Amino acid sequence: MTSASLTLKTFGIPMQRRAARRRLVVVTYIVLAAICCFTAWFARTYTWSYGFALYAAVAVGIFVFGGQGRFGLIKAFPNKQPRPEPPIVDLVRLHLAPESIPAADSAGLKNDERELSRRDRAHYLAFQPLSVVWFLALLLAAWALHPPSWLPLNAILSLLFVLALVASILTITLPAAIILWNEPDMESPTFSEGARS
Amino acid sequence: MIQKTTFLGISLRTPAHRRALVLTYYALMLAILGVFLWKQRITFGIFIQTVTLGGFFGGIRSEGVVKPYSEHTPEPGDSQIQQLNLNGVFPQQRARLLDERELQARDRAHYIAYRILRWTLCCAGAAIVFGMNFAPTFFLKNSPNLLWALVIFVLSLPQSVILWTEPEPLPDSTLTLVPTT
């Protein structure tokens, strides 16, 4: 399921091992949680900052986890051939990095049957917690209409805002995170070359 | 994936009928949302309504048109145990569990539902930004009603996708036995 850019590195760290990918998922969600808290705190004064956490989640979805396009660790979920690059790109690549021309072949960007099944399964698994989070948001919203005496209304509304942010972030990133979490260890290219020789 | 061929007296044999049912369901949900927005009242009873209406087509409930999503993971030597019925699973219960093709259909439906949900949330986000700028009072007052609609949509979407995309079953005449020599 991992992307055919096949570098399998994020921030220079190899991601062939499942443990490394799990660490990446945990660290990413800790960072996103911190951004969520920051956004919730900052948005009380500056309302334009509502989108910070969402922008971060979109960036993680596209550039770190993948599944949305050419970038990231996971191949694009919509199983379509990517748009061809203009010829000038190949020309520049030929001059700057001729060894990257075979790697740029887009044939490996499509998912095979096993990968499609894994993608669908990850979306099924992601759908369950997502439904629960949106249900909790509904509970809080109804609670906000009849707030209890021991809890101020502002606290409920802030909690509702944070929950809506969390639900949105999970919607964007969760299926890819599940795939990265579950995918077993991959064969390292250097290791396989050594074994062949 | 579909366990009933009729629902509330409506035949569900053809995709056209199933699609009509899905469209009617969402039209009904929109009408209920309209009533909620008009009355501007929401109570805790709404949670029971949410689960009942969200699971109207089954899937998340055991009763409904769509089979429950719960999985059956075969154990070693399962086929023999199955025949002897030693594990207490009765044939009618086993018939309701999903086979491999149905599991694939279920996962695929969730993938499609997830993609639809993403675009819906994008539109909802844009609507919230627009609404908070132009009609903040209406939006804050009705946020539980709007969230209720969203939760109903989230809960019912995979089942609707299954009903919408399930192909027509083969006519009985094509299932004739061919004698072998």
Description:
The complex is a heterodimer of chains A (197) and B (181). With 197 residues, chain A is mostly helical. Chain A is built from 6 helices and 2 strands; from the N terminus they run E-E-H-H-H-H-H-H. Chain A has helices at residues 18-42, 52-65, 87-96, 113-145, 153-182, 189-196; strands at 9-10, 13-14. In chain A, helix 2 (52-65) packs parallel to helix 5 (153-182). Chain B has one domain (7-71, 96-169).
Descriptive key words:
heterodimer; A: 197 residues; mainly alpha; two-stranded antiparallel ribbon; elongated; B: 181 residues; 6 helices; 2 strands
**What is the typical, i.e. mean, pLDDT of chain B?**
78
Could you describe the largest sheet of chain A, including whether it forms a barrel? Answer: 2 strands, antiparallel
Order of strands, main sheet of chain A, comes to 1-2
Instruction: State the low-pLDDT regions of chain B, or none.
Output: none
Strand residue percentage of chain A = under 5%
Strand fraction band of chain B? under 5%
The computed structural class of chain B is: mainly alpha
Major sheet: arrangement of strands of chain B: 1-2
Shape call of chain B: elongated
Amount of helix of chain A: 55-70%
* Quaternary structure: heterodimer
- Count structural domains of chain A: 1
Using only C-alpha atoms, the radius of gyration of chain B works out to 21 Å
How many helices of chain B does DSSP assign?
Answer: 6
Counting H and I runs of at least 4 residues, what is the number of helices of chain A? 6
Output the helix-strand order of chain A: EEHHHHHH
Distance between the termini of chain B: 35 Å
What's the β-strand tally of chain A? 2
Principal-axis shape of chain A: elongated
